[in-house]
Specification:
Low-confidence stretches of chain B: none
Largest interface: A-B, 24 and 26 residues
Distance between the termini of chain A: 37 Å
Radius of gyration of chain B: 13 Å
Helix content of chain B: under 10%
Shape of chain A: globular
Mean pLDDT of chain B: 91
Largest sheet of chain A: 6 strands, mixed
Strand content of chain B: over 45%
Number of strands of chain B: 11
Largest sheet of chain B: 7 strands, mixed
Low-confidence stretches of chain A: none
Shape of chain B: globular
Radius of gyration of chain A: 13 Å
Oligomer: heterodimer
Number of helices of chain B: 0
Structural class of chain B: mainly beta
Order of helices and strands of chain A: EEEEEEEEEEE
Number of strands of chain A: 11
Helix content of chain A: under 10%
């Protein structure tokens, strides 16, 4: 099993739709998790941090299931500007940055 | 507030030529610094990280090297580029400690021809 796996996508959804991505990880010792957003040919930008069971920020909700070792990202009322690649990031041992493992990303296209 | 500067934004270099990419961080002291590479359509691969001046750890064998001559400066270099060095290079910083978060520079798109 790979360290971090994500829904391969791409996800093509209409404006206003609700869409969810899943990410699974293999390191059961990981304590904190992150979702980054990356636009084409741009740097990844931190979208959400997940330290406990979940986190909500406006239209975005991240949920963590430690027992099953997966994290999900839910986007409600999709906007055209949500089109991007979403990266799941899982720390390795000790939760230090040098041990972060990035998933391959899930691409989202929100269509008019 | 903290900012990170990375340059150049794009670079086209012939095979066998040298490389120097520079990254500086402002607004913080003693950051951890990182170099990542992202091949087209692929995930991020950690190349180097540094926890202090002159302290460099390499994650993968390659013909690249990194240096940290000052606290907030991180340089990625190569003496002779290979075709396989093409990719999107990203510098990042974090505040050391538990539950670190990475913040990225704007990246350098390198094409080796």
């Amino acid at each position: 099993r790979k360290e971090v796996e994500q829904d391969p996508g791409p996800f093509n959804v209409p404006e206003g739709a609700t869409v969810a991505f899943n990410c699974t990880y293999s390191n059961s010792a990981s304590q904190s998790f992150f979702w980054y957003r990356q636009d084409c040919r741009k740097e990844p930008k931190l979208l959400m941090s997940v330290y406990s069971s979940g986190n909500e920020d406006g239209r975005f909700t991240a949920q963590l299931n430690r027992a099953s070792q997966y994290i999900s990202l839910l986007i409600r009322d999709s906007k055209l500007s949500d089109s991007a690649t979403y990266l799941c990031v899982v720390p390795g041992r000790d939760n230090y940055g040098q041990n972060f493992v990035f998933g391959p990303g899930t691409r989202l296209s929100v269509l008019p | 507030s903290q900012t990170i500067h990375q340059w150049p934004a794009t670079l086209v270099q012939p095979v066998g030529s040298p490389l120097s990419l520079e990254c500086t961080v402002e607004g913080t002291s003693n950051p951890n610094l990182y170099w990542y590479r992202q091949a087209a359509g692929r995930g991020l691969q950690l190349l180097f990280y540094s926890v202090g001046i002159g302290q460099i750890s390499s994650e993968v064998p390659q013909n690249l090297s990194a240096s940290r001559p000052q606290d907030r400066q991180f340089i990625l270099s190569s003496k002779k580029l290979l075709l396989s060095d093409s990719g999107f290079y990203l510098c990042a910083w974090s505040v050391p400690g538990i539950n670190e978060k990475l913040f990225f520079g704007s990246g350098t798109q390198l094409s080796v021809l």
